[in-house]
TrEMBL record:
CDD domains, alphabetized: MFS_MMR_MDR_like (cd17321)
Protein source organism: Streptomyces gilvosporeus
Cited Pfam families: MFS_1 (PF07690)
Name the record gives this protein: MFS transporter
Alphabetized NCBIfam families for the sequence: efflux_EmrB
Top-level taxon of origin: Bacteria
Single biological process term from Gene Ontology: response to antibiotic
């Protein structure tokens, strides 16, 4: 079966598929962990390497810019030359860059290594979801596999906080990078053994090089513009000029894709309301959730006085809830009722959880004020993430699964960068205003976090509204697709 990246044996094709899934998720988990494990170690990195406060943010941004910019191109490369090749290449780049990050002795070396690490992370992540959906063509098995993938995607960030705190406090910040090396080596060797080679659709078939340059430039410039708003502001000449340039490049890319014989991103993927809707909802949900992933950590540390390890433990119930839903109940519910029906209560719970965090007091208690909000967040995300992944990949053919996977991850990165920039800026501004009015430090910080949590809740509420009005049930979507198929085939002829 073309497009299913697993070596079939007479012994057990079923075991081979799940072994391949384990390898794919191990590589993805390593990349996801790195997205949050670094945040906990930033103060130690600053003290050790002498970063200035303004430059310290680039320990994160140097990774985010290439990661967000290269996901789409990397996904298409997987379709062209084979997803196995791209996955192993990404793991190799990421692992090597992790070693260089760990041995860095000055800011310049660390930032350069982080940039290369972002490239490796993008190349690895872009093709993973596409390989998962082609490995499991049957709906029930696919729902289970996407549940496992979604658990890795969503819970990995919370696990990174715990791992980062433990490694930084017990050994040193260098080990948050060194730990990737053995994992990356084992994952790459295992991928070479359990994933079957693919030929892809070949470069010679009218590869859209200009489109690749346009979209990569547009996405990298977009991420750079968003992350730099914390320094320049949203209405500054810097932000407006770079944002306009990114938009112009993106529009040029879309125009080219509409005319290209062999487009990098086939626009027909977005004819499905479920696919295009899932992409937008994903960005909004992740943007809102970043108020939890980033600012809840700050509330625990700066207001409640938690250290790194206790902060990771405090967030860990979210990972437990996500795991319980993603790995157990969600796949069964999606197979039984469809992804839309599971997505709606998931988004509702996330909205309620963020709204509850928006009421945490300055003299709050973790058990009374924080934990009751974290549980609906974990349950909601465990329901929503597999549902969105299923919807986003619903119209992808085996030949397009790489680009669809890359697009889904791109929307996640754009959403997270936007959410972090907007919510952290608003929280900081409101905190400074409260301090100017004479509020205590704890009260001012809490007020800023409350505002950000409330706005995050509002973003997810918008995502919920879109999901309720835009998405359709599987039966309706399939009937519509069947009606559109003859038209599409006629146009292709």
């Amino acid at each position: 079966m073309e497009g299913i990246p697993v070596r079939r044996t007479n012994a057990s094709a079923q075991t081979s598929r799940w072994s391949a899934l384990a390898v794919l998720c191990a590589g993805q988990l390593m990349v996801i962990l790195d997205g949050t494990i670094v945040n906990v170690a930033l103060p130690s990195i600053q003290r050790d390497l002498g970063f200035s406060p303004s430059d310290l943010a680039w320990v994160v941004n140097a990774y985010l810019v290439p990661f967000g910019g290269l996901l789409l191109l990397s996904g298409r490369l997987g379709d062209l030359i084979g997803r196995k090749r791209v996955f192993i290449a990404g793991l190799s780049i990421f692992t090597t860059a992790s070693l260089l990050c760990g041995v860095s002795q000055d800011p310049a070396m660390l930032l350069a290594a982080r940039f290369v690490q972002g490239i490796g992370g993008a190349v690895t992540s872009a093709v993973t979801l596409g390989m998962v959906v082609t490995l499991f063509p049957q709906p029930k098995e696919r729902a289970k596999a996407i549940g496992v993938y979604s658990f890795v995607q969503s819970a990995g960030g919370s696990m990174g906080l715990l791992a980062g705190g433990a490694l930084t406090q017990t050994i040193s910040w260098h080990w948050i990078f060194f730990v990737n090396v053995p994992i990356g080596i084992v994952a790459a060797l295992s991928a070479g053994r359990v994933l079957a080679s693919e030929h892809g659709v070949r470069f010679g078939k009218g590869t859209d090089v200009v489109g690749a340059l346009l979209v990569t430039s547009a996405l990298m410039l977009s991420v750079y513009t968003i992350v730099e708003t914390t320094n320049y502001g949203w209405t500054s000449a810097h932000t407006l000029s770079f944002g306009a340039a990114a938009l112009a490049l993106l529009l040029a890319f879309v125009a080219r894709q509409a005319k290209a014989t062999h487009p990098l991103l086939p626009l027909r993927l977005f004819r499905s309301r479920n696919v295009s809707g899932a992409m937008g909802i994903q960005a909004l949900m992740v943007a809102g959730m970043f108020s939890f992933q980033f600012l809840c950590v700050l509330y625990l540390q700066k207001v409640l006085g938690f250290d790194e390890i206790h902060t990771g433990l405090g967030i860990f119930p979210v990972s437990v809830a996500i795991g319980a839903l993603s790995l157990g109940l969600s796949p069964k519910l999606i197979a039984r009722f469809g992804p839309r029906a599971v997505l709606l209560p998931g988004l509702s719970l996330i909205t309620a959880g963020l709204a509850a965090l928006g009421r945490v007091p300055a003299g709050g208690s973790y058990v009374v004020d924080v934990l009751p909000a974290l549980l609906p967040l974990g349950i909601g995300f465990g329901l929503a993430m597999p549902s969105l992944a299923t919807l986003a990949m619903s119209a992808a053919t085996p030949q397009d699964s790489g680009i669809a996977s890359g697009m889904f991850n791109t929307m996640q990165q754009i959403g997270s960068a936007f959410g972090l920039a907007v919510l952290s800026t608003l929280a900081t501004s409101h905190t400074e205003a409260l301090l100017g009015e004479g509020a205590s430090t704890a009260s001012a910080l809490t007020g800023g976090y409350q505002l950000a949590f409330g706005i995050g809740s509002g973003l997810v509420a918008v995502a919920l509204l879109l999901a309720a009005t835009l998405l359709r049930s599987p039966a309706t979507a399939q009937r519509s697709a069947a009606e559109e198929k003859p038209v599409a085939e006629s146009a292709a002829r």
